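Late entry, evening session. Most of the bench is empty. Finally got around to the prediction I had been postponing all week. Sequence below, unchanged from the version circulated by S.P.
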Amino acid sequence: ARSLPGVGTQARCARGRLVGKMAPRGDEAAGARADVDMAGFTVIPARLSGSGGAARQLLVKPHRAREAAARRPQERTLFVLNLPPYCTQESVHRLFSQCGPVISVELQDKPGPGAKSEAKKSKFFSRKPTEGYRVAYVVFKSPAGMKSALKPQTPWILSPNEHPVTTGLQKWIQDYRCSITDTEALQKEVDDFMKKHDQRVAAIEARAGAEDGVPDEEGWVKVTRKGRRPGIPRTEARNLQAAQREKRKRQQRELLNFYSWQQQDAKREHIAQLRKKFEEDKQKIALMRAERKFKPY
């Protein structure tokens, strides 16, 4: 069935007018989206500055995990999505502190358990540029703070005048300056690491020496490198010497000049070496005669 001419265009225009009447604009849209519940997430409108502009949407919901973690109590932890790349840990802490006291903030590239707090990473060897939006785990001091963040909010300001967030060209300049390595700080960190490593190795060797020759409960004696005949360290030079020694032993075990063709080849090679040496001696004698200053004839 064919549609009447002009009916489709009228229908699209009517639908556009209907959508235009229903869709709020500006602050009305931000306030309307604050009440939306998307798959368990609560939408919080946020703007870069108070001067206006487009409002971003932060998606938050209570943190739920199969295995509970001590640093992320589920009744006080808020899971945040769609954080802009320029948001730092301090800015997120300050942003959610308006809902209640915040204990800790963890920023990650994607949801997950994250790194353990005990494992402190080096700022020189673990640099990774921030690309794209990130997620955060915000731990409040009390459950009331998390519940307050889940209520409809007015648009939040990500970069207030009192605490501006570095963006744009200033952000690139800051990243470049941070990429320049401080040699003195790097040397100090390396020295501290090697000092701890030496202490750890010394403790292991001391424990191995104490256990050497001491039988356990079942009468077994643990063999260590601190015994009467300690093992040879497997360095590159040691490996090369062992390979050469094995090659010499293998050559000694081979049967040389056992077959008649082996004897003929050995004689032929010996004659060739003698001829080569004879030619070299002739060249040496000719060179000595040419360099001789006294010529009786």
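Two things to note before I forget:
The helical segments are 7-22, 27-33, 89-96, 143-149, 168-179, 183-211, 236-253, 260-291.
Residues 260-291 form the longest helix (32 residues).
Will write this up properly tomorrow.
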